[in-house]
Amino acid sequence: MSTLVLLALTGLGLGALYFLIASGLSLIFGLMDVLNFAHGALVTAGAYTAWRLTGRLPFVLAVAAAIAVGAVLAAVVETVLIRPLYERPKDQILVTVGLGLALPALVQGIWGADARQVRAPKQLTGTVGLLGARVPTDRFVLVAAAVVVLVALKLFLARTRYGLIVRAGVEDRAMVTALGIDVRRAFTLVFAVGGALAGLAGALGGVYFGSVSPNQGTSLLVFGFVVVVIGGLGRIDGVALAAAAVGLVQQFTNYYAASGLGDLAAVAILAGVLLVRGNGEGLQRLIRRTA
């Protein structure tokens, strides 16, 4: 029983991390139709920001700085690189892929290719007893952060002015602009929110794995895309459920089958969902953007 509890909560913690990454991807691609391959680089930027500041500042402030760095970088990327390319999706892909390769290379050039150990605060290094299992505290923190983000995103899209502007701008950008509403500012805000979530994922991911590395964000981005396609583009609830399912399947497969097979199991889930959906809306849109 204790093993099942530990695996379940560890899987939910991993799923929460995937959700923090995938929610930003889903928000940007689902609402704005921009395939942002640089999202993993923003995760790396957040991870290294938190790593450098942890110990020098309280951990909460280090995480806040990681969120701010992710948001600012994303806003700059949208304003400088993406905004001129909204009608040129192939160029968007080339630009974001290049940035996704360049930023981790820059991080590697500054701090080296070796993984750096994260010194988590004492509050996150202990364990919590639950049903006979000793569960690392950071798993609960990740799950709590994911729940807060889920609720905040739903409120942002449904209850705020900018959320409504973004949704309307996606449907008919010319009409919204004709009404005197600056859609560009709203789109930049969406990118900034996605970047902030990437920074948060990087900071908490460093605690979850115990280390940061230049390519950590790129590796996690793969599972972010898997979760987005399974959950549905722009469907935050679906993304949350898909992230939890992928995290749980990975953990249980790695434990009861063989280490490493969890990644294969996640891909198998993706394949099964696509077969049931008949290629799926998410995959079709991915194909159209890359064709």
Short summary of the structure?
The chain has 291 residues and is mainly α. The protein has helices at residues 2-32, 39-53, 59-82, 89-111, 122-125, 137-159, 161-171, 173-178, 183-209, 216-231, 236-256, 261-277, 281-290; strands at 116-117, 127-130, 133-136, 211-212.
Task: Describe the 3D structure.
This protein is mostly helical. The protein has a single domain, classed as Orthogonal Bundle (ABC transporter involved in vitamin B12 uptake, BtuC). The protein is built from 13 helices and 4 strands. The strands form 2 sheets. The protein has a two-stranded antiparallel ribbon. α1 (2-32) packs across α10, α2 packs antiparallel against α3 (59-82) and α6 (137-159) runs antiparallel to α9 (183-209). It starts with a helix and ends with a helix. The mean pLDDT is 82.
Count of DSSP H/I helices: 13
The CATH topology name reads ABC transporter involved in vitamin B12 uptake, BtuC
Alpha-beta content class = mainly alpha
CATH class: Mainly Alpha
The largest β sheet comes out as: 2 strands, antiparallel
Integer-rounded radius of gyration: 19 Å
User: Could you tell me the mean pLDDT?
Assistant: 82
Question: Mind telling me which CATH architecture this is?
Answer: Orthogonal Bundle
Helix content: over 70%
- The low-pLDDT segments are none
Mass-distribution shape: globular
Order of helices and strands: HHHHEHEEHHHHEHHHH
Q: Strand-residue fraction? A: under 5%
How far from one another are the termini? 49 Å
Number of DSSP strands?
A: 4
In spatial order, strands of the major sheet run: 1-4
What is the total number of structural domains? 1
Organism: Catenulispora yoronensis
Main location: membrane
Protein name: Branched-chain amino acid ABC transporter permease
Transmembrane segments: 56-81, 93-111, 140-157, 186-209, 221-248, 255-276
